[in-house]
Write a structure and sequence with these properties.
It is built from 12 helices and 17 strands. It is α+β, with helices and mostly antiparallel strands. The structure holds adenosine-5'-diphosphate and magnesium ion.
């Protein structure tokens, strides 16, 4: 007979966004008690919100973490001092503050990747406008990419620039990361999950498509060669191991014409590029993340269909549109993040799995457009 009924493992998630929201179904299935610290009432993850508060406040997060088996995250913006206080109170943080440092700051990330001998775009740190001019000069004053080291997401904090005057506002706040503008043939993402015991599982490489720096579509698996796909798995596994990442790690990469890969950035949590695996894989990235941070055995990442596509939904979800999208395509899977409508806001996604991605993508775009009322791209 099972003793300790009602004593499920307790996972705390800092941040009440859609990633925390999508951890709820697997938590329910596995009998895990999910506790979410939300920034505000009515967040995406409100069904599991147990506390409302500021994740930058030490006392708030320490109080939230009390009695948890593990603390994990929906975003990477929790300050180091807060993480250290929680760890000091004896609650395991996964991924650890040391690992997270490489996801929180793109300069730290670049340094770490270079130290590991992994391929990255040519880059430099700029603290003055003269630094920016010098970097531009090495690229014959062709456009380069400037990034704020931390706090960015969905292309916020990324600019294509032609002159130093375009980043003077950022330089006022501290150093800026400069990168060559990479002429990639595709952007790809490799997901891996790693547990504290060192067990690792990867999913197949996927192709991500961005518009204005925001992910709009994902195609799985990517059409990259087997050699490149194996290389991508190797890169992600190396990073997970060497940085001691626990939970899901997403490695965003640029795929070059030559088949080479250049690492763009890391996310140490479930990631938009992995949403397709909720339908396409035996184990979703959300279930795997929970299993990994709890040091439970990891699940199989085998695919249950040859291909899948995910199309993000922006602006707002129209309930009449949802009904007609469901009617038009019984295979369509809708994920509504429960967010209020706002122009440009990512409010959900749709997924389709099947035999080949081209026709799936066409149908998924139609489904997404029915839901938003926006035209099919
Ligand atoms: N060095 C680069 N060269 C070309 N495009 C880039 C470069 N860096 C970023 N981008 C484009 O901008 C997008 C967002 O940049 P990224 O660094 O991933 O920021 P975010 O943290 O907002 O996701 C990328 O997915 C890519 O489309
Ligand atoms: Mg990115």
């Amino acid at each position: 007979m099972g003793l300790g009924i009602g004593m499920g493992l307790r996972v705390g998630v800092v941040g009440g966004g859609q990633l925390a929201r999508m951890m709820i179904p697997p938590a329910v299935n596995l009998g895990i008690e999910l506790h979410v610290l939300s920034e505000a009432e009515g967040s995406s993850a409100r069904l599991a919100a147990t506390q409302i508060g500021d994740f930058r406040d030490i006392n708030t997060v320490v109080k939230f973490a009390e009695g948890l088996d593990v603390l994990t995250f929906d975003h990477e913006h929790v300050p180091r001092a807060v993480l250290d206080a929680v760890a000091g109170a004896g609650v395991p943080i996964r991924p650890s503050a040391d690992a997270l440092a490489s996801a929180q700051n793109k300069l730290v990330m670049r340094d770490k990747l270079v130290a590991l001998g992994l391929p990255v775009p040519r880059w430099a740190v700029a603290t003055t406008t003269a630094d920016v001019s010098e970097f531009l000069a090495t690229f014959h004053n062709q456009p380069v990419i400037a990034k704020t080291p931390s706090g960015g997401y969905d292309g916020k904090g990324v600019r294509e620039i032609l002159g130093p005057s375009e980043v003077t506002d950022w330089l006022g706040d501290g150093p800026v990361l400069l990168e060559e503008k990479v002429m990639f043939v595709a952007e790809v993402s490799q997901l891996v999950a790693r547990s504290p015991s060192g067990e690792m599982q990867t999913w197949p490489l996927v192709e991500t498509r961005q518009s204005g720096g925001v992910c709009v579509e994902v195609i799985a698996p990517s059409s990259a060669s087997e050699f490149t796909s194996n290389h991508a798995r190797h890169i992600a596994s190396t990073i997970a191991e060497e940085l001691g990442v626990t939970g899901v790690l997403a490695v965003e990469m640029f795929l070059m014409e030559s088949g080479d890969l250049l690492i763009n950035e890391l996310a140490m949590r479930p990631h938009n590029s992995g949403h397709i695996f909720t339908e396409l894989s035996l184990t979703s990235q959300f279930e795997q993340h929970l299993r990994a941070v709890l040091d439970l055995p990891l699940g199989s990442t085998d695919l249950i269909a040859p291909a899948g596509v995910m199309v993000n939904i922006f602006d707002g979800v129209d309930q009449v549109g949802v009904r007609s999208a469901l009617r038009a395509n019984p295979s369509l899977k809708i994920h509504d993040y429960g967010k209020s409508a706002r122009r440009g806001r990512k409010v959900g996604h749709v997924s389709l799995i099947g035999t080949e991605w081209e026709s799936l993508l066409h149908l998924a775009r139609i489904g997404a457009s029915e839901i938003t009322g926006n035209p099919v791209p």
